[in-house]
Amino acid sequence: MSVTVRVPAKVNVQLAVGAARADGFHDLANVFLAVGLYDEVTVTPADELRVTCEGPDADRVPLDRTNLAAKAAIALAERYGRDADVHLHIAKDIPVAGGMAGGSADGAGALLACDALWGTGASRDELLDICAELGSDVPFSLVGGAALGTGRGEKLTALEVGGTFHWVFAMAERGLSTPAVFREFDRLAEGRNVPEPLASRDLLAALAKGDPDALAATLSNDLQPAALSLFPELADTLAAGRTAGALATLVSGSGPTTAHLARDPASAAEIAEKLRTSGTCKSVRVASGPAAGATLVEGRR
Ligand code: C5P
Predict the structure, then answer these.
(1) pTM for this predicted structure
(2) How far apart are CA 133 and CA 58, in angstroms?
(3) Is residue 171 marked as binding?
(4) Mean pLDDT over all residues of the chain?
(5) What single string gives the DSSP state of each residue in 116-140?
(6) For ligand 1, atom 11, which residue shows the shortest CA distance?
(7) Is residue 135 lining ligand 1, measured as CB closer than 6 Å?
(8) Residue 47's CB: how many other CB atoms inside 10 A?
(9) pLDDT tens digits, residue range 54-68?
């Protein structure tokens, strides 16, 4: 038998970044919103651990033990004293190295799928602990919806969202490495006092109300200057989104995917069409949020 889990992408509607900590990570106030672009991870018993991937960016996905899906299977197997003898297949629709937590989605998906396949009986908290060990964004990929992440982003508080937000995502020709973007953030912050990262009350109120205009007025990403510094052409994509009628635009997480907030589905479709023909990005997708977190779609035991 096999088990398939579907996991959403995320956009950070606020990403407040503090100074580098002694361990090299940064304290964050990270407001995650899961959006309806999905990877699917299918796990099947096998002789030994193997990862395969299909999808538009599949050639850019590592298939060895550095893949977060493989790391998740190994971490769960170690905890339950068994072999990670599974074939993990990733049907990838979330952009690779795009700032939308695609790798984290595969980690959370593999964890939930292996857990169901092996019937470990692990509690939600145990799974969340493993997610946090795998990476800062992995716990959010498991829970989905909307949440405030503090610490390095892994300590989650669920947030109320009073409506559906409509987005257009513009994918770039190349990826950006998250560590490189944080390093650039540190370089740009040299000699400056970096304030403690705090969630914006106005932004949380906009989410709770489901008000796109209020959310547009409060979107922010402290990593955006660093992403633009490493990938200056992204400024053209952001400008094209604004010209196309987006309420607001920002770089998603560490980038380079850009997120364009629309008032409604019709406006999202129009912005998407204009961005597609703008010549400032590789491809364009429309998606709305909040979306549910990692969910078993097939092969429930
Ligand atoms: O936690 P994760 O493995 O996803 O982080 C990838 C990299 O991003 C880290 O190695 C670190 O360079 C950077 N990072 C950070 N502060 C965070 C999260 C990530 O500096 N809160």
Answers:
(1) 0.96
(2) 25
(3) no
(4) 96
(5) HHHT----HHHHHHHHHHH-TTHHH
(6) 179
(7) yes
(8) 9
(9) 998 899 999 999 999
